[in-house]
Amino acid sequence: MPDEHRLEETFLSHEAERRISEKLDEAEKIEIDVQTDLLKIVQGQADGVSVAGQGLVIQEGIRVQEIKLQTDSIAINPFNAIFGQIEFNEPVNAIARIKVTEVDINHALTSDLIRSQMQKLNLDVDGEIVSFEPQKIEIFLPGDGKIECRGKVLLKERENTRPFTYTALLRPRTNSQPAMLESFNCTEGEGVSIELATALMQKAKELMNTPYFKWEDITFSIKDIKVEIGSLILLLETQVKQIPSSLTVLSP
Hints:
Number of helices: 6
Radius of gyration: 22 Å
C-alpha cells in the first residue's frame, strides 16, 4: 500500500509540475510535491503541498533566485486533483523561504509593476501636508545584516517642489531584534527640517511594523530576514488561497 500511495503522489506531483511548466518560458528548476493518497484525494484532502523553484520571474521583471514553500494539510478539489490541477477549497497556511539577489531587487524596482506601487507619500508635519514622490531607489546588500538604500524623491512643501537625494543604512527587523536605522544622509538638496525628519521616521516605523502584506492570492507576514553579501533571505508565514500560476522565467 505505501508504494501505491507513493505512485499516486508522484503522478499528481508530476502533473502539477507539467501544468505550471506549460506557463513558463524556461525554468532553471521547478518541483511540486503533493503529499496525499487516493483515498484522501477522493475525500478532497491532502497532507500538504511543497513547491520549490529557482530562477523564477513572478509577473513582469520580478525575479526570485530561490523559493521553497510547504503547506500544512489542505482541502482540495478532488476532481481537478486527479488530473494534477491542485485547487484549494479553503485557504491554507504555509511556511516559505525566499531568496532574492541584489541585482534582482534593483531590476524589480525599475519594473512597471513595482513603480506603480511606489505612490506619493503624504506626511502631516505640524498640520501641514508634505509629500514625497519617489523617483529612484537602489538597494545594496553589503552583508553583516545591513541594507543600504540610495534614493531620489521630489519633496513638495507648500508651493515649493525640489529634488532630494539620500543614502540610508539600516538593519531590518528580525525575529530577535527591531529594525534599526544606523545612518541617514542628504546627498543632494537643502536637507530636511527636524520636524519633517521625525514625521518621516514615524511613517517608516509604521511601514516596517505592518503585520502582513498581500500578493495575488497569498497573504504573508515576514518572520525573519537574513542579509548576506549580495542577497536577501526572507522567512515568511503565509496564507495561500491558490498556488500562483502567472509565472514566467528568466534564464540564469
